[in-house]
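User: Class II aldolase/adducin family protein, Actinomadura rudentiformis:
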Amino acid sequence: MKCAEERRALCDIGRKMAGTGLVSGASGNISVRVGDLVAVTPGGVMLDRMTPEDCPVVDLEGRLVEGERAPSSETPMHLALYGCTDAAAIVHTHSTYGTVVATTMTELPPIHYNTLLLGGVIKVAEYATYGTPELAASVRAAMEGGKRAALMANHGGVAIGKDLDDAYENARLLEWLCGVYVRAKAVGEPRILTEDELVQVIERSLTPPVYPRRDER
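Assistant: Predicted structure for Class II aldolase/adducin family protein:
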């Protein structure tokens, strides 16, 4: 079986996504790239009930290489992102807070400095029908500039990573940031970090900590 290890990993991540509420039912999809091949979740199958054999393998043009089931309808979006980013894996979610933000805003403001882990301010890709070239192009545009995640208007979220675990954790971080913002709005107007404050966070991360020597204490 081609990409056997990766297809098993898709099933593992699918169960995690369902268990943490990043998807419900047969929504959402996942893929992982192996050279010129992409293992992707099948369309119409609940992510926590897949088997490795359920997950088809396609080439970078979207042609089916192996598998009995049809690839996810969002495969064109996945392939578009592989063509314009350094992603080795992609996770597409229909999470609650991410979808709330994606239906009400054009971007997720930097409410927390961990926004920087996803490349900065999270853009909301313009709405387009799922599974279309238009949606793929819209998401590509929202991910420009080295972003690791984006939201999709009236749809959900997408995150990329250096491997499946990384993409999954980026998707979880995206949902956490959206959840913090939505809950903060229920209390009052959230304070948004300024560009200068974000720059200071970057500078701090590049500065190694200095600890006093024992004889200086």
